[in-house]
Amino acid sequence: MDRLLGRPRLTDEQKRRVPPGQYLTAKWPVLHYGSVPRTDLSSWDFRVWGEVEQPLDLTWEQFRALPRTTVHCDIHCVTRWSKLDVDFEGVSVRTILDLVRPKPSARFALAHCEQGYTANLPLEALRDDDVLLADTYGGEPLEPDHGYPLRLMVPKRYFWKSAKWIRGLQLLDHDVPGFWERYGYHNEGDPWQEQRFAE
């Protein structure tokens, strides 16, 4: 135990999995801007639009009927905590992209969430096999503080890119900064490069 910080010392294996400047936590801290929205699943929908051949609008029941997958991963927050060995279940974003058929012009995506929150990513980042629209954590539905009913999960980026309470994806031919990027966060958010803030 690191007596000064009250944190456990990392094993060699953990050190390989924790990016620079991060510390390990067993908890899942709750961080977000604004209040936690209330969700009525009977009127909830998820949309994909923009530079796509086939726009999509799913009810909760339709979303839950899509093929499901589980991702075992580590997550890293820009506020410097990392949590290892977490399990999320949901629908692969690849499945969604297959349904909407992005146009050749589609190069970026903007996640649209409750209360006007947005997060931007290159489209290629969403094609990774560990990127999910997650509704389950550790075998249980997401808690409201963590994004119930649905959040984007992008494990290879700082966790603000894993937008809570997601309601849709807009595919674009150009990049549009998301909420935190407009306030000075780095556009890419790679934890291994410590891309926390813009230059």
What report would you give on this structure?
- By secondary structure, the protein is mainly beta.
- The chain has one domain: Alpha-Beta Complex (Sulfite Oxidase, Chain A, domain 2).
- Helix content is 12%, strand content 31%.
- The strands form two sheets. Strands 1, 4, 5, 8, 9 and 10 form a six-stranded mixed beta sheet that branches. Strands 3-2-11-6-7 form a five-stranded mixed beta sheet.
- The protein is globular.
- The N terminus is likely disordered.
Write the topology of this structure.
Blueprint: H1 12-17, E1 23-24, E2 45-50, E3 56-59, H2 60-64, E4 69-76, E5 81-92, H3 93-100, E6 108-113, E7 118-122, H4 123-126, E8 132-137, E9 140-141, E10 151-153, E11 166-172
Parallel strand pairs: 1-5, 2-11
Antiparallel strand pairs: 2-3, 4-5, 5-8, 6-7, 6-11, 8-9, 8-10
**CATH overall fold name:** Sulfite Oxidase, Chain A, domain 2
Q: What is the percent of helical residues?
A: 10-25%
**How many H/I helical runs?**
4
Shape: globular
Features of this protein?
199 residues, mainly beta, Sulfite Oxidase, Chain A, domain 2, five-stranded mixed sheet, 11 strands
Short summary:
This protein has four helices and eleven strands, in the order αβββαββαββαββββ. It is mainly beta and 199 residues long. The protein has a single domain, classed as Oxidoreductase, molybdopterin-binding domain (Sulfite Oxidase, Chain A, domain 2), CATH 3.90.420.10.
